[in-house]
């Protein structure tokens, strides 16, 4: 994998769609999503159709911006993540998933990270009554099932993409849990590598790539500090300031594939966390009414479909993993 | 001369004189030279009763070791022109220990004066804060191209010298709905300042003129309907044409403040983080929390501060005077960046604030009045006068940089001040 493609001009839409690489990538992506659906459905999950607009959405982070639309005179948002609706969905079913479109106007500094799209799909999972460890297990299973399906059934396509199946040897050789490292350990590791990482913040793009490049199979980073994530990631009751959350990082420098957590579900704690994250609770009326009436505790995650596709297909940049790419700051079809 | 504004209770005529005459206004009228005897007046000229800051005197020492250091450096006797006023303000390099305070969506600031101030602040190479509520009230671009947030940014950027200055954008609770910081962080027009490390975001916790309340404006009833979804509106005038529009002051605890600052650093790693505090009784603790969480600057607006609409009962009765804030904070013991505002327009008050631990002083009403007097270079002239005074005062204290001032340079006649001059 290299970052060179990220800086190259994107092809025009017809050329991108007609590129044999794009067609092969889309087939691989089909198989990845199909494998996830087969696995989750087999485990008793129900697929719900997610909304695209709403009065409020995930506030996001790291400088990403929401898109407002006029909804009969009211300000509505395009979904940046299905998280609030995933929590609501557990009033209907205990185990749900969806393949959700999201739009985030990412800051211009992400234009050349090779892994940011303004418009992307997320495979979202939410499980009532689950712990973080339960959710991490489901997340690992999805990745293993998807990679297995592609490696076993699409060797010709991988060959056309120049992706060596041996890249997945460490991932597939056993069913041991993926390695785990805490955010604190990751920060210390980066310091040893000479990378100055803010200990209170998300692992920055460069730091994430450094850690990713040193791994040969996916691994989890857990326990992000409060202040680096949204109000819905649950704070550890025994360790104030530490969140019961995790990211799954791909090996080979591909970086983050998914984020997940145990969710906050207590009304008063959610209000306080909203203030801590600079949010105005008045915006979240429907959500807070629902939480006040009671929602189940849960854990879940969202996998970036294009990012997972990029990793499996061995692509230089995430925009190659979607037929209609929209990258930060680039006016495109 | 435009003269749209008045500022009763403020040193309006003195500010206007400086906006007209520049550095010459640091002295008595030239026409009186040789004809009049000058000496201290019995009461502080610009002070208000109970203003502890005004009651302090700057007291030069007889022995001046720092002047000897400067003498050795220069190989001649130093004079006031050798004072280097350049300093660091909230992560920005500034030509002087000054910045332009926030004024937001009030009618005064939106009238075009805000843009005039922006242009001159940029020219001076001093940082500028753009106040809250502009985006939800006036708009990101502004309907007339003159009053929106981008107009102030581009006016500043058009004249700022390389390597100096910076623009700080405030955000309050309602601004969070409008995603002001997100808008700016990814705005192509803000990238130049961002790339050169000259963009900051200021979390507004409160303000001097009305601590405990949010921003307030008077709006016409048509605008009130548009704004009612996001603001409180109150028909206090009963004339069918105007209503009071109020923002939420927001709700803060130590943990909420700490985490909001961390989130700012997480979400906007390339922007500086400023925090504006009201003159509250726990201001020292609040500033400590902000600095511990990684704020590049903490701004404290004394109760004398403010340029916007505020209830009279607050103006006269609520909040700590700046002098008391400075004494409680004891910022001279730290190396953190403390910025202060409240009735700043002349060198003596600024110098006293610097001596009590402030890094820089903010010009609010004075900046607006100066451009009201002369929209082309009123602020330039006001600041040139103030800087001359600062150079005179700092050199008289035997020092040659604003950061060299300390509590030993001031003396409180009633013994209630900080460290007496010794």
Automatic annotation (TrEMBL), chain A:
Residues 27-323 form the Aminoacyl-transfer RNA synthetases class-II family profile domain. GO terms for molecular function: asparagine-tRNA ligase activity; ATP binding. The keyword ATP-binding applies. Keywords: Aminoacyl-tRNA synthetase, ATP-binding, Ligase, Nucleotide-binding, Protein biosynthesis. It comes from the Bacteria. Its EC number is 6.1.1.22. This is Asparagine ligase. It comes from Streptomyces cinnamoneus. The lineage of its organism: Bacteria, Bacillati, Actinomycetota, Actinomycetes, Kitasatosporales.
From TrEMBL, chain B:
Residues 200-371 form the Glutamate synthase domain. GO terms for biological process: glutamate biosynthetic process. InterPro entries: Aldolase_TIM, Glu_synthdom. This is Glutamate synthase. It holds the Pfam family Glu_synthase. It comes from Streptomyces cinnamoneus. One of its GO terms (molecular function) is glutamate synthase activity. Belongs to the glutamate synthase family.
């Amino acid at each position: 994998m290299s970052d060179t493609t990220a800086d190259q001009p994107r092809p025009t839409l017809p050329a991108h769609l007609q590129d044999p690489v794009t067609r092969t990538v889309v087939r691989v992506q089909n198989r990845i999503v199909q494998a996830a659906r087969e696995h989750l459905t087999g485990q008793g999950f129900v697929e719900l159709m997610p909304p695209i607009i709403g009065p409020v959405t995930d506030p996001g982070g790291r400088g990403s911006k929401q898109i407002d639309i006029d909804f009969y005179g009211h300000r509505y948002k395009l979904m940046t993540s299905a998280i609030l609706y995933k929590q609501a969905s557990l009033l209907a079913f205990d185990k749900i998933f969806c393949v959700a479109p999201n739009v985030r106007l990412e800051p211009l500094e992400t234009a050349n990270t090779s892994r940011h799209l303004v418009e992307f799909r997320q495979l979202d999972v939410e499980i009532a009554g689950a712990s973080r460890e339960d959710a991490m297990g489901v997340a690992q299973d999805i990745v293993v099932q998807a990679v297995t399906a592609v490696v076993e059934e699409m060797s010709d396509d991988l060959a056309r993409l120049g992706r060596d199946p041996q890249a997945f040897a460490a991932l597939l050789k056993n069913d041991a849990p993926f390695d785990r490292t805490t955010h604190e350990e990751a920060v210390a590791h980066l310091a040893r590598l000479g990378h100055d990482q803010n200990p209170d913040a998300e692992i920055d793009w460069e730091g994430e790539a450094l850690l990713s490049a040193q791994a040969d199979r996916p691994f989890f980073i857990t326990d992000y500090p409060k202040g680096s994530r949204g109000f819905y990631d649950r704070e550890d009751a025994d360790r104030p300031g530490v969140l019961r959350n995790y990211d799954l990082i791909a090996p080979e420098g591909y970086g983050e594939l998914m984020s997940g957590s145990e969710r906050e579900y207590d009304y008063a704690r959610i209000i306080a966390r909203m203030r801590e994250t600079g949010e105005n609770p008045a915006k979240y009326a429907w959500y807070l009414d629902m939480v006040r009436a009671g929602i189940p505790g849960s854990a879940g995650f969202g996998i970036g479909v294009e990012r997972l596709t990029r990793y499996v297909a061995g692509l230089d940049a995430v925009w190659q993993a979607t037929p209609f790419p929209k990258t930060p700051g680039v006016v495109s079809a | 001369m435009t003269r749209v504004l008045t500022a009763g209770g403020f040193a309006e005529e003195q500010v206007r004189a400086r906006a007209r005459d520049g550095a010459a206004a640091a002295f008595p009228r030239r026409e009186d030279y040789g004809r009049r005897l000058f000496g201290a007046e019995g009461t502080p000229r610009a002070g208000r009763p109970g203003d502890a800051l005004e009651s302090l005197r700057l007291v030069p020492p007889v022995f001046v070791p720092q002047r000897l250091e400067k003498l050795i450096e220069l190989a001649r006797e130093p004079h006031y022109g050798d004072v280097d006023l350049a300093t660091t303000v909230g992560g920005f390099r500034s030509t002087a220990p000054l910045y332009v305070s926030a004024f937001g969506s009030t009618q005064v600031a939106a009238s075009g004066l805000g843009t005039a101030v922006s242009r001159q602040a940029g020219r001076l190479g001093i940082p500028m804060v753009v106040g809250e509520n502009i985006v939800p009230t006036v708009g990101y671009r502004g309907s007339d191209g003159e009053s929106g947030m981008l107009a102030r940014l581009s006016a500043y950027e058009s004249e700022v010298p390389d390597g100096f200055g910076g623009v700080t954008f405030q955000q309050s609770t309602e601004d969070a709905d409008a995603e002001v910081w997100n808008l700016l962080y990814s705005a192509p027009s803000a990238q130049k300042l961002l790339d050169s490390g000259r963009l900051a975001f200021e979390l507004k916790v409160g303000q001097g003129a009305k601590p405990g309340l949010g921003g307030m404006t008077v709006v016409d009833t048509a605008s009130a309907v548009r704004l009612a979804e996001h603001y409180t509106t109150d028909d206090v005038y009963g004339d069918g044409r105007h209503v009071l529009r109020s923002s939420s002051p927001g709700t803060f605890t130590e943990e909420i403040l700490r985490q909001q600052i961390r989130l700012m650093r997480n979400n906007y790693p390339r922007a500086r983080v400023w925090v504006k505090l009201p003159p509250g009784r726990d201001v020292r603790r609040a500033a400590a929390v902000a600095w511990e969480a990684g704020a590049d600057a903490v701004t404290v607006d004394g109760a004398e501060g403010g340029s916007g609409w505020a209830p009279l009962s607050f103006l006269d009765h609520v909040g700590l005077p700046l002098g008391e804030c400075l004494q409680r904070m004891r910022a001279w013991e730290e190396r953190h960046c403390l910025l202060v505002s409240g009735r700043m327009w002349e060198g003596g008050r600024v110098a006293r604030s610097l001596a009590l631990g402030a890094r820089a002083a903010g010009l609010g009403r004075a900046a607006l009045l100066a451009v009201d007097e002369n929209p082309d270079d009123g602020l330039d002239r006001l600041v040139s006068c103030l800087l001359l005074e600062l150079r005179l005062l700092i050199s008289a204290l035997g020092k040659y940089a604003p950061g060299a001032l300390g509590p030993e340079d001031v003396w409180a006649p009633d013994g209630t001040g900080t460290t007496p001059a010794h």
